[in-house]
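so the lab meeting is tmrw and i was supposed to have these ready like two days ago... anyway. pasting both below. for each one the top line is the aa sequence and the line under it is the structure tokens. i havent really looked at them closely yet so no promises
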Amino acid sequence: ITLLNFPSLILILDNPDGLKKNTILDQIEEANEEDHVDKKVKNIFEADIELTKSDRAGVDTKNQNSKDNADVDVDSVLTKRKAISSRRHLWVTKEVPLELAVSAKDGYNNIRAALGEIQSKSCIRFRMRDKDDDNWIRFVNKSGCFSPVGRQYASPGAQELSIGIGCNHKGIIMHELLHALGFWHEQSRSDRDDFLEVLWENIQKGQEHNFNRYKPKDMDFNGGSYDFSSIMHYGNYAFSKNKRPTMLSVKDPTLQFGQIAKLSPTDVIQLNNVYDCKCE
């Protein structure tokens, strides 16, 4: 595939006194609202992660609903930074086979742009799948935006990355591709409370589990400190029940985050470290 790296967009907060609800994750949350999503699409976690059976064994989907009991013990499934720690879930050859379902053809240009940005900043290479591939990503147009995390080596064949109604945006597609490459959400990091205040009283009832922390045995940062500008970070209003923020920066409560529509510098460092890229 010949991929082009199209210009990216960073949405900048003009008025720091008025936090906005228009982030990548806000768009995903809206696209994945229960009224819109086909009931056949199950096991969606943290708004857009399709959990496999093995994933469900490694994460806790119980609603913890407070800072003190939001820790989740995970046995070597996540790292402190946010990337999956089992190398079996990585695309170990650094080549990722792809397939574009007919239903997703309208997203072709944005898919190309998202793939192009990732290729331009890492050693990951995307190509069309062939008959000898055991695993590949299939872009589909189903209800909502979602992807499993990492290569689904235990289930040979296609793993679906959905760009349904409301999901056909370069930033959203890159976010889902980072999931498929092995990345979880930034605000789930075990050290997040040093940087982030979760306002539990503003979270929709039954959605508290989306703000759980993880306590992995492997505490490797993989080259990245906490990153509010990560494309994998929720916005300030994620899962809000009352139009009030559910998350604020500890140091700067006026900080708008989750706005970025391209890979942050720390995202790039993390991606290259996880995949052992030797970039100049």
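ok protien two:
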Amino acid sequence: MGVKFGVTAWGRAWLRTVESTGASSPNSLLPQARILVGKGSVTLIAVETGRIRAEVTVRDRVVPVEIAVPLWSDVESAAVRDLVARAGSRNRAVAAGEIPDSLVADLTAKSISVAGDPEAHNTTCACSGRKRPCLHHLAAIYQLVVQIDEEPALAVALRDSPSLTAGRTAAAADVLPLDQIDAATFYGD
């Protein structure tokens, strides 16, 4: 079974940045980008405030991609934080990054875009392709969608102010350096 994209409303918001229903013709690179993600050829190096860094491997060549994403305004950030805090008071899973899909509808009602305008995303890619967005950009976004589906809080961290999301990377939630564990007390008494 293949990789599923846009399983959550948070992931679908980002999916729409590359799979626009308003496009006059289908983008022939989309299936190739999805295949690269399905084969494990895309690695998100960092997902942090205002920036996505990825490496896409195509035919044994690693292509670095960086996508700059505009942040929410102070007013938008405050509204998002308020909605997330209210959701967290009702659901403890929010603290672990499981933000309910219903918040996307709440943000949309307040005219706050989860992913922002794709035209405002600034991409740097080392490829020589002429088509924009390029295959590597599309593959990075598809991999981001998978990550956001797994941890919707990444969608908020990506567009919120740096003070709240400093140091956040795609793998940060699952990594604890061994030197931070006290072996003497790890298993208890």
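from a quick look at the 2nd one: Residues 26-129+137-162 form one domain. The first helix runs from residue 9 to 15. will dig more after coffe
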